[in-house]
User: Fold this.
Amino acid sequence: MKQKKQLYEGKAKVIFDGPESNTLVQYFKDDATAFNAQKKDVITGKGILNNYISEHMMLAVSKLGIPNHFINRINDREQLVRKLEIIPVEVVVRNVAAGSICARLGLEEGFMLKNTLVEFCLKDDSLGDPIIAPEHIFTFGWANPNELKIIVENTLRINDFLTGLFLGIGIRLIDFKLEFGRHENDGKVEIMLADEISPDNCRLWDAETKEKMDKDRFRRDLGGLIEAYQEIARRLGIKIPEVS
Assistant:
């Protein structure tokens, strides 16, 4: 078997050159990080769970007509994805106040926002992923107004869909983070959803108990992260190999 060429290693994933032109292999690690990697650990099986859950989510998003980089799951830890030019902007969607916005604006965790709030952050760990305005995005050429319009429209559609999907299985979607990129094919450039959709980049609370079912279990030393991710997969009807 031909050895895959590693192109990039992030906090939770490794990216390899794909078997065909304009493809990549996305490998899900068991590494858990928080606070811009100031807190680190390895949680056995986390990568497998995120791989299967993200596959489920990306396929669902595709059915909405929203293009994304996912092609297929290769095995328990790897996905075949389209090669994109990643836009260095993280899109944060907030339905309920939690996390950094509470510290920034003095809000109480759990405060229901009057409307869905979309924030933008520069994707740069060394700078702490600072919040930026659309004007920064345009000024520095990270995306043009039409691209940002597509990103925001697709983000809000994804939020509406995921909110209903999770509510149907007794989970509240508090907030989540998305990334997008440009895919070029036959001279045409299309904006596509990238990265993953999993409990690693979503805040998810049990609708009745308000129990946290996401990476906050690691951030806050609550324990039981694998069990929470497994419960999400179970409620979504995803069959996952036994994690040990």
About this structure: The chain has two domains: 6-82, 85-222. The chain has a mean pLDDT of 95.
